[in-house]
Amino acid sequence: MTAPVLLVHPGPHGVAVFGRDLAEALTDLGADPRVIDPAEISSLTPGTPVHAQITDRLWGTSPEDATEHVLALAARHPLTVTLHDVPQASDGERNRPRRRAFYAAVARAARAIAVNSEHERALLDEEGVWSGPVAVVPLPVTAHTLSTRPRLDDAVGVLGYFYPGKGHDEALAAT
Question: Quick one: which of 26, 41, 67, 168 has the most CB atoms within 10 Å?
Answer without folding.
Answer: 67
